[in-house]
C-alpha cells in the first residue's frame, strides 16, 4: 500500500513538469485561458460578433460534419450524435420535437435547405438590434425572451 501511495505522489509531481512548455517562465503564472461561447466559434475575423456570412459558412460546415454518410440530408441518428451516454426520456422528447421542427416537408430527413432555413431563423431571432451581426450577450438575451405567439393560438 505504501508503494502505491509513493508512486501516486511521484506521478502527481512529475507529470505536470512534462506537460509544461519548455520556454515557460517558472516565476510567471500561465496565461488565463479565455472562455468563448459556442456561438463565437463562427467569429472568423475575431471582432467579437458573428455576421450573417460567418454564420452561414459555419452552419454549412456544421451540416457537412453532421452528414456522415454524405447523402445531403440528416437522419435522426446523424443529427443527434450521442456522447456514449443514453439520452434521458426528456432529451429524447426534445430531439423528436426539434427534428419535426426541422423536417418541414415531413419526409423523415432534414435536407441542407431545411437545416439552413432553421439556422437563418435562429440568427434572425438572436439579432435583436437588426444590425446583421450577433454576439453571445445578444443571443442570450433573445433566447430568454419568449417567442411571440400568434393572436389566434388560444382559439
What does it look like?
The structure is a single chain. The protein is mostly helical and 155 residues long. The protein has a domain at 39-144: Recoverin, domain 1 (Orthogonal Bundle), CATH 1.10.238. The chain is 48% helix and 5% strand. The chain is built from six helices and four strands; from the N terminus they run αβαβααβαβα. Strands 1-4 form a two-stranded antiparallel ribbon. Helix 2 runs antiparallel to helix 5 (112-126). It is globular. The termini are far apart. 11% of the residues are buried. Mean pLDDT is 80; it is low at 1-26.
Figure out the total of helices: 6
- How far the N terminus sits from the C terminus, by CA atoms, comes to 72 Å
**In sequence order, what are the helices and strands, one letter per element?**
HEHEHHEHEH
- CATH secondary-structure class of the domain at 39-144: Mainly Alpha
**Any idea what the shape is?**
globular
Low-confidence segments: 1-26
Amount of beta strand: 5-15%
Main beta-sheet annotation: 2 strands, antiparallel
Average pLDDT value? 80
Structural Rg: 23 Å
The spatial strand order of the largest sheet comes to: 1-4
Helix content: 40-55%
Look up the CATH topology of the domain at 39-144: Recoverin, domain 1
Amino acid at each position: 500500500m505504501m508503494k502505491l501511495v509513493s508512486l501516486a505522489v511521484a506521478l502527481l509531481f512529475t507529470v505536470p513538469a512534462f506537460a509544461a512548455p519548455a520556454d515557460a517562465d517558472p516565476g510567471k503564472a500561465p496565461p488565463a485561458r479565455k472562455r468563448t461561447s459556442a456561438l463565437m466559434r463562427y467569429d472568423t475575423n475575431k471582432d467579437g460578433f458573428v455576421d450573417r456570412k460567418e454564420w452561414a459558412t459555419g452552419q454549412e460546415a456544421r451540416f457537412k460534419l453532421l452528414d456522415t454518410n454524405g447523402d445531403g440530408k440528416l437522419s435522426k441518428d446523424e443529427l443527434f450524435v450521442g456522447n456514449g451516454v443514453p439520452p434521458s426520456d426528456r432529451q429524447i422528447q426534445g430531439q423528436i420535437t426539434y427534428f419535426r421542427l426541422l423536417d418541414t416537408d415531413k419526409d423523415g430527413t432534414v435536407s441542407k435547405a431545411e437545416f439552413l432555413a432553421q439556422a437563418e431563423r435562429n440568427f434572425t431571432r438572436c439579432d435583436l438590434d437588426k444590425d446583421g451581426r450577433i454576439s453571445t450577450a445578444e443571443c442570450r438575451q433573445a433566447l430568454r425572451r419568449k417567442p411571440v405567439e400568434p393572436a389566434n393560438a388560444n382559439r
